Amino acid sequence: LACSHHHCAFPVRYNELCVWNIATAQPLYLSGHHYSISALSFGSKIHPLLVCSASHERVIVWNLDECTQKVQKGFTPRGIVIGTLLGMVLHVRFSPDDQLVAVCAGNQIYMLSAKNEAILAELNGHLAPVTAAEFCTREKSMLISVSEDRTFKARKLVWDYSTSQLIYQSGIITASPLLSLLIDEENKQIITGCAEGQLWIFSLISDHNYRCVAHINLKKEQEKFYNKVWKPGKEIGEGQNNSKPCKTDNMRPEGSVETSLPILLIEHCDFFVCFHNEGSKYSSQNTSYFWIGTSTGLLIINLANFELEAFLSYKDYSNLSIRIARSCALTTKAANGKVLCLITSMFEDMIAVLEVNLAALVRTQHRDFLLHGNRKSLSVVARYRIMRCFLSMLDDGFFYLVLNKLNYFTTGVKNTVKDKPLVFHNKIMSSGYTAAPRMTMFSPNSNLKKKEVSKWKTSCKCKNKEYPLESYPPIKYEKEISVTYKPTPIFCVRYSGDGELLACGQADKTVLIFNSNLTDVHNVFSGHDGAVNSVGWSHDRKWLISASEDRTLRVWSVCNKEPALILGKEKFRKTVRFAQFYFIDTFILLCSGAEFHLLSFHLDTTKDDLKRYKQRSVCRLVQKFPMTSTMEITSLSAVNEFYSYIVLTAGSNRALEVFDLNAGCSTAVIKEAHIRSVHQICQNKGSSFSTQQPEAYNLFLTTASGDGIKLWDLRTLR
What we know:
This protein is mainly beta and 718 residues long. Helices cover 7% and strands 41% of the residues. The protein contains five helices and 51 strands. The strands form 13 sheets. Strands 26, 27, 28, 29, 30 and 31 form a six-stranded antiparallel β-sheet that branches. A four-stranded antiparallel β-sheet has the order 1-2-3-4, covered by helices on one side. Keywords: WD repeat.
């Protein structure tokens, strides 16, 4: 996606470019790619306005003025091909004078001429795909890049950009890949974000040597912001948010599953432009603000105190069907106090264009700002419309543009509705904000001394480093323990994501959790009426899911022996198997007979004193997916470490089937994949987060049966 002052660009039909003029609401379609477009960028100048599109096989620069004229005359517009066969392009960026284009393809950055096909320089040095690169406006020969190798580099281009000089190379900043980058020219700083919701700010001042100025944890800043804005006992009156949320869950409820927060975009925010006509405290401040685009919403950060000023969550608006975004883009300048934002859905081929009223967004979330503004505005809820949605669905290549003219975000409310509160009473108690958010989900076992734990971790790390890869696998075990007093079969074992805990499902209907060195039993879960056939950890390692032969499913908190969620026998007709968390703890997948179920859930471990035995966690069925011509699913594989919509199943009929949950259907069936029934499927999960397109995920899978092991290429199944 890409946005300029008055234009938005996005791909349709995967390989066709659509440039939408915001002022005239007219789309311009540009064809020239044969493969999916993976990166877009607008030029720095307005006249002429250039846009660069990149795919696997070519990079094209389009002059929008010339293309518009050709379309009006009935001709097919053509762009200038400036690069071919560079590989998977993740990011493109024009230089300040629009003479150069930096193309991030794989581990390299190609400096291309914007006028003809010429590679001026190839910049190496990163050890993983380069995710973003930015030119420095005050010094156009300076280029800064970030990569999935978790480092950033500053280079200076010399000798007509044919060579480069490495000015600075950082160490590894974080444990997660760096995804986004912004150069703050006014404050001479670099701002970069990673896949786990962390922001780092580095100084560009010459004698500071790129030192780290600040580190911001967005998850903690969100919780601080909610505590400040929605205090316990606070009431929602007439001057609060005029949009109608579909669910009041801004503050993460106690016991809920916490997901990752990838930072997809960092952009400047015209904060003061939106308040220049209002006598508020914000219009007189002298500081900088910038937007943060994540997979769940938009945030505004104050660069003076590094605090959160406003937050817009996609889930809070019932008219917006996108809940989790794969990518986003923002207009660089506000028009009439409003900013346009483009987001794409993680699961569907859908793009939403959001018109955000910045002043209204801040007003509804800051009580002290309400007191400084016009008091008459407090009684008119519908006057300050926070967001207007333009939904464009990309289905079979057709482009639909729907303008939402509703004053309220409620289906069926027309524009003729008079200004009045959204509820029948003037004031209602805020539901869900009376309790402080739970900062720590569980505490580790305190029986072990800290010295012993740290000593054991250090020894394990040393052993891992000393073990040579070319040596034979170990044949002697270090420790053996007995899990029960009598011989009991263990049906399944599973390590947690950090390798600190080990879960075992046993035939005696219990689930045991050990420390990874088998020195202590961390917890024992009992409650199933049959043998436990599968266990699975959540991505944040705070929850454990178990399935049993008694046709029940249970979700346990690691620190509590009582289950947080129970799905009984009435939900399933056959034995539940292969239960796991899916889509970074957003859903639950499980198999029952010849079909697998996709479930959405919400976990709540709090207890009501009057109804202690009533379960407060909820779970509902999203959809059932039957496997073709089989009696029972014998194996299931899905990725929870990153966002992936591919689910693989194997049946008793010896077939292998690929499901695309993005499309909600089966996409490929391999009949008689093995001579015998497949009992294990393994996907190549790769890194915990990748910026590559979904086509690049899980290209290979391995199946195992009684007749051997086979390797499959998913690209040949499409």
